[in-house]
């Protein structure tokens, strides 16, 4: 049996998610699964980016361990963050997953909902970059989708 490339493995997992209940769970549950995937399929120069709604500074985190730092920075103001998968877009060198983030603030317990996207950018058979976007149009442009 052949070992799948990064894009094939990702598409298989995301397709199963989209054909299921679409609940990606809490950030603490998702993160280890994402990191495990990236440990298997990320390039040595992999970068994770948190891309705010324009205008804003893109925060970049080097290496697979940077994903946990990125999520830690993003989630520090929230009591909880969970996501629901909505739609998958695929191109030759990228995969985008539209999600709806539901977060509860630490102060006041206010629940907020934010449409967003995750974009995996591939080079060869490996992931070179993962971007988290608050603007879905920007996510599609980043992935050439």
CATH architecture: Roll
* Strand order, largest beta sheet: 1-4-5-6-7-2-3
Molecular shape: globular
The total count of helices amounts to 4
What is the H/E string?
HEHEEHEEEEH
Number of strands: 7
How is the CATH topology named? Nuclear Transport Factor 2, Chain: A
What top-tier CATH class fits best?
A: Alpha Beta
The percentage of residues in β strands lies in: 35-45%
**Helicity, as a percent range:** 25-40%
Radius of gyration, Cα only, in angstroms? 15 Å
Mean pLDDT: 92
Roughly how many Å apart are the termini?
Answer: 31 Å
Number of domains: 1
Low-confidence stretches: none
Main structural class:
alpha+beta
What would your notes on this structure say?
It is a single chain. The protein is an alpha+beta fold and 145 residues long. The chain contains 4 helices and 7 strands. It has one domain: Roll (Nuclear Transport Factor 2, Chain: A). Strands 1-4-5-6-7-2-3 form a 7-stranded mixed β-sheet, with helices on both faces. Strand 5 (94-105) and strand 6 (111-123) form a beta hairpin. The model has no long low-confidence stretch (mean pLDDT 92).
């Amino acid at each position: 049996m052949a070992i799948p490339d990064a894009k094939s493995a990702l598409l298989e997992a995301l397709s199963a998610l989209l054909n299921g209940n679409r609940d990606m769970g809490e950030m603490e549950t998702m993160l280890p699964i994402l990191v495990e995937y990236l440990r298997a399929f990320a390039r040595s120069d992999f970068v994770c980016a948190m891309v705010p709604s324009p205008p804003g500074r893109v925060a970049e985190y080097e290496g697979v361990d940077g994903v946990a730092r990125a999520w830690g920075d993003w989630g520090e103001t929230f009591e909880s963050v969970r996501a629901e998968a909505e739609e998958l877009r695929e191109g030759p060198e990228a995969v985008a997953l539209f999600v709806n983030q539901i977060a509860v603030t630490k102060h006041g317990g206010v629940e907020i909902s934010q449409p967003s996207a995750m974009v995996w950018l591939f080079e060869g058979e490996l992931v070179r970059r993962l971007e988290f976007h608050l603007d879905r149009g920007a996510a599609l442009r980043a992935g050439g989708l």
